[in-house]
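thought: fold this chain, then report.
action: predict
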Amino acid sequence: TEAGDIGPERAATAFVMPKFWGLLGTIAAGAVWWQVHTRCDSAWASAFGLMILGGAMTLTGAHEMGASLASLGDGIADVLPAWIVDGLLVGIGARIGAEIDNAL
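observation:
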């Protein structure tokens, strides 16, 4: 591309609700990460735990939202549902992890 020109058009993938095992994996990873986050005194340990569990979370919405923001907001409306659902599933997992911890 020319200097200062926004690059080739990029189309966001169509939002599809995660498959059952991907959905459960994201919730479980959120629960495990919350336990790591609340039990360690170091922000580095929490970040390292998130990096390790990131593969299990399959956060495609976050990746695409980052790409959209980096390209000056191109396609944000297309990736917004996936970004919201990814965050919601990890949050549900964190809540489940906290409730299990309280029950024990």
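thought: worth noting. The radius of gyration is 16 Å.
final: tokens above.
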